[in-house]
Amino acid sequence: MSGYLDDLSIVQEEKLKKFRDRVKDVCTDKHNDYQLLRWLRARDFDLDKSEKMFRNDVKWRKDNKCDTILDTWKPPEVIQKYYTGGLAGFDKEGCPVWIDPYGHIDIRGLIRAAKKSDLIKAQIYRAEYIFSTHKTQSEKLGKTIDQVTLIFDLDKLGTKHMYRPGLDLLIEVFVMFEDHYPETLKFAYVINAPRLFPVAFRLIKPFLSEHTRNRIHILGGNFKKELLNLMSPEELPVHWGGDRKDKNGDPKCSTDISFGGDVPEECYLSASTVSISDDWLELDVGRGSTQKLEYEVKKEGCLLKWEFMTDGSDIGFGVFMKTAPGPQKSDEMEVVVPSNRLNSHIVPEDGNLECTKTGTYVIRFDNSYSYVKAKKVKYNIQVLEADTMSDVSFHSAQDVTLM
Fold first, then answer.
1. Is the pTM of this model over 0.70?
2. Where are the transmembrane segments (predicted)?
3. What strands lie across the sheet with 315-321, from one edge to the other?
4. pLDDT tens, residue by residue, 94-145
5. Domain that holds residue 336
6. Do 28 and 170 belong to one domain?
């Protein structure tokens, strides 16, 4: 049996019932049987693995404010303009179709013009935007719509796209989709694949589940005919074989689908764009270790603000809150900002958060993944109260070497 709601075996029905009971403490109204089955199918109906994956996702969505991101955040202009892709329309069954002319992306330029954290967040934003259409389509068509079809146009893909930080970003995005949007991919079509494509795909393939790999189709020179089997002509842009043009009469529908292009150098961020004053500090993070900086917040509503850069290599960064007095490991603390590896050696990172609770906030710089190279971090971290910098209570920098 396929594992979908209308095609369950007796064993699968029983596992769905058990799974629903196991995770009822974190379920919301949106977690109907259609949604719960996604997690079961993604882990081949293994209850323990499905539950772990589901609970990790609930926490991840809370940490990243996924449910409100469309209303509370917009990608920086440079990302909106130069990150390729857009919603093309809907297939013949009513599922959204996203077309990404990835061969036109200037990934090196984007990485130099935007923070990695914003590039990742923009992908979450896009995912939530795509899946926001599911509710509308489901109500319109009177059936459940919960998948998306992707079309990757690799025309102009070349060696410049083999840029290591760009590949790392792409892999991180794919892993994010595997972990947090499982079983939402209907099909992925690759068109205009160059001779370089098999090399690039070999690098990415290990990070894709078998479920995902089985839904990827490489189309040949007759791809326009194939795409018309997927979408009606009025939905498919002229550029890919349909009849649709955008409001400006563009056959590429570029008002809806970004074709990227070269990012102007004046958009680049660099260390020179950061004003380093005497209150900036330096921190050495040893090989295979982390450094933790503690800040005491005594009033609700304070702003914890950070700026940092590294010399030569990336660094992991996250914000936590202590849950008990005395020393604590990161996994014993409350996650406030999930830890991610950031290209702060290419583009300086900055950010802030409103401290809704009093207590000890911990900023962690993580180099535990690098057993070869130590990292030097230059940083400026402040606790701001009522638009004025308060006295910052700095406790310690703990050099924790992983055993």
1. yes
2. none
3. 334-342, 315-321, 359-366, 289-297, 394-401
4. 999 999 999 999 999 999 999 999 999 999 999 999 999 999 999 999 999 9
5. 274-340+349-360+371-401
6. no
